[in-house]
Write a structure and sequence with these properties.
By secondary structure, the chain is mainly alpha-helical. The protein has one domain. The chain has two helices and no strands.
Length: about 140
């Protein structure tokens, strides 16, 4: 009876192994179907959304750069407009231009301008003086 018991045990163990393999395959299929597959779909959907968001971000950053360039140009044009208004509508424009031109004029004539007020004052007579008799011929 010992041999019969061994062959029956082999049959039982083979059946047990086959059942375990079938259970393993079924559990693998079920876990893939109901656990892994939905997560893979979520991942793929998230990747698609990420690609869309990345493209949208790129287009928005390009638009922001264009808007910044336009804003800078607008500021420069506004500053130029203010400058032109000051030149056209300012009653003191000629005086300011003269005062602004003094350093350049002094540099061109090799003079040093330290003050608008003269360092030495000289009195200028408004009446014609007659020269002394000794100096006339």
């Amino acid at each position: 009876m010992g041999l019969v018991d061994i062959s029956e045990q082999k049959k039982i163990s083979i059946i047990q192994v086959a059942v375990c393999i079938v259970l393993f395959l079924v559990s693998g299929f079920v876990s893939y179907r109901y656990l892994i597959s939905p997560e893979i779909k979520k991942l793929q959907t998230a990747r698609k959304e990420y690609a869309k968001e990345k493209a949208l971000l790129k287009s928005m950053s390009e638009e922001a750069q264009r808007v910044n360039a336009l804003a800078n140009n607008a500021q420069l044009l506004e500053a130029e407009l203010v400058s032109l208004r000051n030149r056209v509508f300012n009653t003191e424009a000629e005086v300011l231009n003269f005062i602004r031109a003094i350093p350049a004029t002094a540099a061109q004539t090799n003079n040093v301008l330290t003050s608008i007020v003269p360092q030495q004052t000289k009195e200028v007579s408004t009446t014609a003086e007659t020269p002394p008799a000794s100096e006339t011929p």
